[in-house]
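Homework help board

Subject: predicted structure for assignment chain

Our instructor gave us this sequence and asked us to write out the predicted structure in token form, then describe one feature. I got the tokens but I'm not sure how to describe them. Can anyone check?
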Amino acid sequence: MTFAVLGPLRGWRGDTEIDPGPPKQRAILALLLVRAGHPVPLHEIIDVLWGAEPPDTAVNVVHRHIGALRRLLEPDLPARGSSRWLIRGSGGYRLDVSPVAVDLGRFRALRSQAAYVTSPGTAAELLTEALGLWQGPVAAGLPSEIRSHPAFAAVDGERLAAVKAATENAPSADPVIAGKILDLARQTAVRHPLDEALQARLMLLLAATGHQAEALEVHQRIRVALADELGLDPGAELQAAHLRVLQQEPPAEKPEPATAPYVRPAQLPAGLAVFAGRREELARLTGTGPATLVTIGGMAGVGKTSLAVHWAHQIAARFPDGQLHIDLRGFHPDGALTAADALHTLLEALGIRPERVPATLDARSALFRSLLADRRVLVVLDNARDSEHVRPLLPGAPGCQTIVTSRHQLFDLVATHGATAVTLDPLSTADAAELLTRRLGTDRVDREPDAVTGIVECAGRLPLTLAMVSARAAMNPGFPLSSIAAELRRHRGGLDAFTGESPRSDVRAVFDWSYRILSPPAADLFRLLASHPGPDCSPVAAAVLAGVPEADLRAPLTELLRAHLITEPAPGRYGCHDLLRAYGTGLAADTSGARRRLFDHYLHSAYAAVELMFAGRTPFRPGPPVTGADPVTFDDSAGAVAWLGTELPALLATITHPGPESARHRWQLATVLQPHLDRTGRWQTQREIQTVALRAAADRHAEACAERSLGFAEGRLKNWPEADRHLQRAVEIFTAIDDPAGRAHTHRLLAFLANQRERHETALEHYRIAADLYSRAGETVGRAIVHNETGWTYILIGAFDLALGECRSAIERHREAGHPNGEAAAWDSLGYAHHHLAAYDEARVAFGHALRIYRAVSDRYLQADTLTHLGDTEHAAGRGGHALDAWRQALDILDDLGHPDAAGLRDKVHSQAH
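My token output:
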């Protein structure tokens, strides 16, 4: 896929142009392209499309367009597969496409390259090439109210800045290039008549190219415009340009660079003969082409240097003037090699005698750039500490290529020099096995595939740890790999199995090199994050762990990210590799108090989210949170849904955490999450965590809640004997402790499962008991829910008139109680009854009410359920096209949720479409 957004929005799959769709869908794609590689929050997408007054359906319209874009960009993507490019997360969407696949990305890369070349003429050529990519205003053709949004206006501003820079460099350029820039500057000056900086540069370029009279006309024109429209005189820059034109000053000439004898270096270290994997990263590196700056980052032991050297040998032939390599020792315990000392070494490698090396850093850097001017040299700067460490070592020549490796994120090199950043994750399982095969031989690895899998898993798929394990196996050829795998499992969760002969091959020592340079706040935070039970966490959760305001964590989090001691798998989510987690846990003092605070935060936040989504259906209310564990607050159901979707892995990890400080949280959090897990079809997960909750139950009420949730999960999985046993046990305990509301809820679940087995009379009896118990407990919402579920049961047995009465009663009771979710469910049931009475118009009206409420409360699963019912009604009424549209909307939602109900609906859509 390639895209153009500098002008009309266009896209191609290979040589075939695609249609980006209707205007709002085009606007979303344009916004994602402008922010390619970065998340775009949902609220910003809505702001671009509708401004300050979005409709109630805005969120659903965006989701529908996103679904259409996924099908457009990846037509062969499996229905429930993960998108390669259009990624959901952090409350919005991110388009992951290569910068070179978008004309805006190529424009930005050329502009960045022009910013650090030393030759003004070369800079002018690069900027001319960049500006040649523009075919009109960004996203031309979109409605003006959308194009005026700051997201697009800022990109138009980038073009203006590039024109100014090109105009400033044009006097030193080839006459043909200078002529092109002059024409462009004239056109741009007309569109920006009051931009003094642009007009001043245009005047100087006109004078430099022999158009002095026109330059004076430009000055007179802007002087009058400033006076008439703004009441201002020309500023200092415009006055200085006017004076230079009057004095006919020639453009300043730059001195010729210093010359020096040149020696062709060939310093690349030997490549790793057993290098394995990294095909995707190598393809990306190769795709960067020549004349670029590349950074390779990642945690300690992930194989940065091996990849850099391997790739450098692959491309060395492109650089006939040689290859330079230096280890900057950025994290060495004895201190890093300074930039000045590194330049001394590099200059000597290029033929400069030691006594001729300049004394200052700036002079050495200038001489280094001069020696490489007009040459094609590959420079590998290994193990840099940060961006400032390597900035003086960057050649200015466009024909050179620099590869920098570092444990730190070299953000400034990407931001100011246009570097292409490649961050290494641990090897894939297949690549890790390939590495073992290359080190130990195919025969030995193929004999024990299960042992290989165990070794790969325990070693964390890091090249460093895999190399250490391989070395142990190679030095003991008589050892079966299964014995080595068993030894690693004994040390699981620790680093004792990866202790090497020297600090370079000792994992704990290698991690120490990164840890010891942290500031105290960052070191404290690293130890606490290592104790977090989930795969990652939010800044809010990190602040709760640390017991400080969230704002105080920004600097420590950034420091840890730059050091690659933690990762950011999605924007605003922070985690770390298992071995780093083990390392951090080994450093930590007692963190049980911090974890207890975190678990309380998760419990109360989850309760707030679930109660907002399922008012009246949360069967347990936790006590007040401990100090410092303030829960997240939610403005609406959409926020609650998004929070649960993001935090669910951490919540589940909290439930299964083995520490004593989490004992009471296990059953409480499992009980709170039950409605959400059931609604989203995570029934296997439900069974697993409710089993944990039952073991952790601290009293009879806890035991009853866990039995009830576990029984319902077993029923969802159609394990009927187990379901009956657990639910009946729950009824017995709730009866013994005199909890009528708990009994009522359990009878409702028994009724639901009875309907699943077509035992409708049994279901009605359970609902009768539940209604009486809810009345005893004063639970009006529970009584209303029973009305609706009884109505649904009447539908199942064909008693549609009785169903209408129950559903209408449910609607009224829910409305009186202010319970929109329940009211929507009752409207859906009422529509379903009308459908079976062939009253299709009445059914459509009822389904419309249900959809409106479900969208307002952001209950996406039940939106899909009602859309499915609406499609059935349209189909029965002979409106096949409307039916297909409703079913497809429902399928998009179910696919996005990964819900098991999607499979049956997909068959229905396919059948109707064909």
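Reply (TA_rk): Your tokens look well-formed. For the description, you could write something like this. Residues 274 and 438 are 5 Å apart (CA to CA). That's the kind of observation they're looking for.
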